[in-house]
Amino acid sequence: MEELKLWQDDPWLEPWKKDIWRRHQATAIRMAELSRGSERLSDYANNHLYYCTHIEGDERIFREWAPNATAIHLICDRNGWRRDSAYAFKSTGDGNWELRLPSDLLVHGDCYKWLVEWSGGEGERIPAYAERAVQDMETKIFSAQIWDRGRYKWRHRRSAISGDPLIYEAHIGMGTEEYEVGSYNNFREKILPYIADTGYNTIQLMAIQEHPYYGSFGYQVSSFFAPSSRFGTPDELKMLIDEAHGLGLRVILDIVHSHSVNNTAEGISELDGTPDLYFHSGERGMHPAWGSRCFNYGKDQVVAFLLSNCKFWLEEYHFDGFRFDGITSMLYYDHGLGKSFTDYSSYFSGNIDDDAFIYLAMANRVIKECNPAAITIAEDVSGLPGLASQFLSGGAGFDYRMSMGVADYWIKIIKERRDEDWNMGELYHELTSKRDDERTISYAECHDQAMVGDKTIIFRLLDAEMYTSMERSASSITLDRGVALHKIIRLITASAAGDGYLTFMGNEFGHPEWIDFPREGNGWSYHYARRQWSLAHNPLLKYSELLAFEKELLKLIKREKIYRERPVKVYQHDERQLLAYTRGDLLFAFNFSPTNSYPGLRIDLPPGSYKHLLDTDMKRFGGFGRVAQGERHISLKDGISDYISVYLPSRCAIVLKKGR
Questions:
Q1: pLDDT of the residue at 293
Q2: CA 299 to CA 349: how far, in whole Å?
Q3: In this predicted structure, what is the pLDDT of residue 453?
Q4: Mean pLDDT, to the nearest integer, of 107-117?
Q5: What is the mean pLDDT of the chain?
Q6: What is the pLDDT of residue 452?
Q7: Cα separations in angstroms, 490 against 159, 358, 462, 495, 510
Q8: How confident is the model at residue 660 (pLDDT cuts 50, 70, 90)?
Q9: pLDDT at residue 145 tops 90
Q10: Which of 164, 236, 270, 379 is catalytic?
Q11: How many Å apart are CA 424 and CA 582, to the nearest integer?
């Protein structure tokens, strides 16, 4: 057994070395088996080039893997959507089926399906590798649609962004202010310039993989290779990504490989009549909380399907990486439900699905082989050691892990504690605690906190006053508190973050209300499934001031490259609710007290001159202007200590920079 960096960096993993080594070796062996002697595992991930439909010479070929099928027919407009022997597939062995037709019989834009027969039954199915699925607006039935590749001509190269991820989490359908489903074109024309102007460098697109139920937020995927047609065409999505690259933005896909929709008519569940074609059999094949199907990551065909899916989105659509959703559910036999993960035994108690871990490690390798600059982010609440460590160190190879506990912590203290009871030591620990061998992305809130039944931070802080008191001239105890804390919370979350920062669209300017997709319970209304951008651009409203602060915050992060250095705490006073830390040459100082301001506050720092760069109380951000702008603080000496003296008003944060 070799020594792996994973446990060398973390002595607490010493008792679990054998488990880690066994998993590491199993991953290496699995990679070698699937790559079949090739140096590139990505050479194995080409199923999307073989299955579904492709032109070869003067023939259009259709293929499907359906080992339990006894017959497959293609049904379409040409044959009246009926079984026709001229459109019958032939078995080619190993569960594969193939149909060859003249290339001009079915053409770009034609809709079709499979009619799959099995012993004791039959059903209409959409191809597992379908690259486009469209819904009939009258019948609401989905069909596959031929969409030939190579039609779109790319104008911009992939973004060569080296900066730390500043991520704008976005949903195409919600990207409009109108009472409708937004489109790829609307997002490209109106939202891309706004994102770039605000200062984000990465867009995380949700709900791209086709999903039959709009209200699932895109997390109940049916067609894994098809961009959702409710937003527009594949070429329009490519145009969006192309233009984002032209603006210097990365675009990453919120990819769902943790489960699949249970629907048989739209999805891959029971494609050939069996429940375990791509999934586990029995109870293990059904997610107890989500009602969806759970992939069998130990099956070669499933791994090939998912790895090919990663490669497809990178190469066909030029995505710059992925945020993998629901990894906790993948990794544990019990899906992590009801688990607190308070000690390391939680990760090595026989509850880990090694096949899922191995798949994730292989996915990261394939992605890096396809695009070494691509980034991968793990959405995992368990904190599994090694998830965001390199494979050679004993990990799964993700570049970043989402710091999911940060958002939960903010909601907890806002809901459950008086402002006077916020503890600075606890707060600093929650915001900065991370494994030394991993990079993390922090956020004060994402789409989870905005869903119906929950509340965004600004909504919790202001409640009903969001509807009545957002004019710039308005003032009240509740309003002043909410606006101040919204800025402070975002500043401390972003500045104390490990290696990157994320927000869900609209939250940067305090978007009101919650998210609720059209459904029977709300009269199929789009009122809460859109973004009211006009609020942020109205100079008479406080939303514009919150947006102005977000812009300055992101500008500061990028200009000063704050994530190159770790936070170092230099001052803490729990009773006064004061906290200060440095990152490189920057000092971040916070006063969370609702009532007490502190003139002449002493903070011990290296000798030098410290210039004011930013504070949350600036008038153009909706504050009271209590801090002198551009002021320099010259260090003083008291015995052996150097320090500066600052004025830190109540509910205010300041950022100073040490001169060189």
A1: 97
A2: 23
A3: 66
A4: 97
A5: 95
A6: 66
A7: 27, 36, 16, 8, 11
A8: confident
A9: yes
A10: 379
A11: 15
Cα 67 to Cα 70, 90, 272, 278, 438: the distances in Å are 8, 12, 7, 11, 42
Cα 645 from Cα 157, distance rounded (Å): 49
In one-letter notation, the amino acid at residue 95 is G
Among the candidates 110, 145, 180, a domain finishes at: 145
Give Cβ neighbours of residue 186 (< 8 Å, ≥ 6 apart).
Answer: 175, 176
Q: Confirm whether 401 is domain-assigned.
A: no
Q: Is 325 a catalytic residue?
A: yes
What mean pLDDT is predicted for residues 183-191? Answer: 98
Q: What is the CATH number of the domain that holds 131?
A: 2.60.40.10
Give the Cα separation of 622 and 539 in Å (integer): 11
Give the pLDDT mean for 151-162. Answer: 82
Q: Is residue 636 part of a domain?
A: yes
Q: Which of 325, 355, 380, 430 is catalytic?
A: 325
pLDDT digits (tens, 9 = 90+) for 623-640: 999 999 989 999 999 988
The set of residues, in sequence order, having a beta carbon less than 8 Å from that of 41 and lying 6+ positions away, is 31, 34, 35, 307, 362, 365, 366, 369
Range of the domain at 113: 47-145
Domain CATH for 617: 2.60.40.1180
As a whole number of Å, the end-to-end CA separation of the chain is 49
- What are 540-594's pLDDT values in tens digits? 999 999 999 999 999 999 999 999 999 999 999 999 999 999 999 999 999 999 9
Cβ of 274: how many Cβ atoms within 10 Å? Answer: 16
Contacts of 198 (CB under 8 A, 6+ apart): 168, 508, 547, 550, 551, 554
- CA–CA gap between residue 592 and residue 603 (Å, rounded): 16
Whether 161 shows a pLDDT value over 80: the answer reads no
| 648 vs 597: CA distance, rounded Å | 6
- Residue 557 covered by a domain: no
| Six token digits for residue 137 | 């607006």
116: left (phi over 0), alpha (psi -120 to 50) or beta: beta
Cα(556)–Cα(136) distance, rounded to whole angstroms? Answer: 48
Whether residue 392 has pLDDT greater than 90:
yes
CA–CA separation, 458 vs 546, rounded Å?
11
Query: In the predicted model, what is the mean pLDDT of residues 191-218?
Result: 96
**411-439 average pLDDT score:** 95
Measuring CA to CA, how many Å separate 266 from each of 199, 229, 277, 465, 553?
39, 13, 15, 44, 44
379 is known as an active-site residue: yes
Residue 227 lies in a domain: no
> At which of 101, 125, 145 does a domain end?
145
Nearest to 578 by CA among 657, 647, 656: 647
What is the number of structural domains in the chain? 2
* Report field, pTM of the whole predicted structure over 0.85: yes
